[in-house]
Amino acid sequence: MDDKTAKNHPARQDEGEIVILCADEVVRDVITYWLTTTPRNALVAADGYQAAKAFENGSRWLVTDRVLPPWPGLDTFLTLRGRYPALQIAFVESDNIHDGILARVTGASVLLKRPLSRQAVTEALAPTRSP
């Protein structure tokens, strides 16, 4: 599937509409659990390569706790947003205020503030939300 087709193609069921790629296991597991109570299909990516494949297959959200890169196989937020204009990026803020600023400047659509709450996460990732 080429980039143009992927941009207009809904996510395949086995890929996940929302890709979760978080280094913090607790954050990753909690967000994944909260999303099971919504109609959204989430994929916990093992690495940047799997996440990139999901975007090629139509995934529309990336939830991450790292400003990219350092995920092997995944480009920076700016490059991802250029390649997949429909992609939305939710960045889970850390204790370092500079990471949140950098995430926003480089293309994050949403900053998820800690402590995370189910309501904040599900509202931020709602299908009707626009950037």
Structural description of this entry:
By secondary structure, this protein is of the alpha/beta class. Helix content is 37%, strand content 15%. It has 6 helices and 5 strands. Strands 2-1-3-4-5 form a 5-stranded parallel beta sheet, sandwiched between helices. Strand 4, helix 5 and strand 5 form a beta-alpha-beta unit. The chain is globular, with a radius of gyration of 13 Å. 34% of the residues are buried.
The Cα radius of gyration reads: 13 Å
Sum up the overall morphology in one term. Answer: globular
As residue ranges, the low-confidence spans are 1-14
State the oligomer: single chain
> What topology, given as strand order, has the largest sheet?
2-1-3-4-5
Q: What's the main sheet like?
A: 5 strands, parallel
**What is the succession of H and E elements?**
HEHEHEHEHEH
Mean pLDDT over the full residue set: 87
Proportion of helical residues: 25-40%
Tally of extended strands? 5
User: How far apart lie the N and C ends?
Assistant: 26 Å
Number of helices: 6
Percent strand equals: 5-15%
Class from secondary-structure proportions: alpha/beta
